[in-house]
Amino acid sequence: YHRLHTKETRLSKFNQTEIKAMLGSYTKVLFVRDPFHRLIATFLQGMGISPSFSSFVQEVLDSGMHNSSVAWKPLVSLCRPCLIQYDYVVVFGFLRQELGHLLRRAGLPAGSLLPELTDSQVQWTYRWLSEQMFSELSAQQKQQLSHFYRWDLAAFPFSSSFLSE
């Protein structure tokens, strides 16, 4: 797109006609991850200063939608899947098969470019971690988190998320 090299990088800086032209000229891929797994990863990476997962979750809930960090903000507010028609939605946990498909569609040799991904091990680990972390939360925190991420849970296939139970 001809305005690609401008200093403005956010779509909101362009008018509707420019946005439509830009988005139409790219293959749009959205990578999504269970919001509860995103919270766990953020906590484990030390992005929250809380001593426990429960107090970290409370900080997230207290921050609200408008003041929340990109690390845990609901995906629908970041990626606007209702406004942008993504060509592919890649769900964390199925990376190997989905990235292989994307590379083949792009005409690239999928096998030689993909890193070794062990999705099943990652899924098992996150399932175990989720059980442990979820058990630390109060019933009210669980309900508030489900409400906080309700649009992500409705928009993406996170059927096994602890937040959708």
Automatic annotation (TrEMBL):
Transmembrane stretches, start-end: none
GO cellular component, one term: Golgi membrane
EC number, UniProt record: 2.8.2.-
EC category name: transferase
A GO molecular-function descriptor: sulfotransferase activity
InterPro entries: Carb_sulfotrans_8-10, Sulfotransferase
UniProt topology in membrane: Single-pass type II membrane protein
Coiled-coil parts of chain: none
An annotated GO BP: dermatan sulfate proteoglycan metabolic process
Highest taxon listed in the record's lineage: Eukaryota
Keywords assigned by UniProt, alphabetized: Carbohydrate metabolism, Glycoprotein, Golgi apparatus, Membrane, Signal-anchor, Transferase, Transmembrane, Transmembrane helix
Location(s), subcellular: Golgi apparatus membrane
Pfam families listed in its UniProt record: Sulfotransfer_2
Family stated for the protein in its record: Belongs to the sulfotransferase 2 family.
Protein name, as recorded: Carbohydrate sulfotransferase
Organism, as annotated: Vireo altiloquus
Gene name per UniProt: Chst8_1
